[in-house]
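Deliverable D4.2, example record:
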Amino acid sequence: MTLRITIDDDASTAPYEQLRHRISELARSGALPVGHRLPTVRGFAEELGLAANTVAKAYRALESDGVIETRGRNGTFIAAAGDAADHRAALAAQEYAERAKRLGLARAQALSLVEDALRAAYSR
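Output generated by the structure prediction step:
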């Protein structure tokens, strides 16, 4: 399976973020099934016309999100279509809720802060 990913050089979103978003999207939709092997960092960088560090940064972010896993010299693979990302997001939400409560924020104030943060994140 060849990955058909294009990077828009004129977009306001950084190339590594475009790549991270697209691979995550393909994994969550099932277009990239669990266990699918991704290209090497260098090979993918050449294919996309990007610096290897840009692809490596996207892979690190995807691994941190639980979308991919690196198996040493065996390569990089799709780890989970959505379960891992959902689980990590739920944990982050729980941590935020607990911290907001410890800080003495009212529920409405804590929700308002989350809505502001989401609005900013999704408008980029």
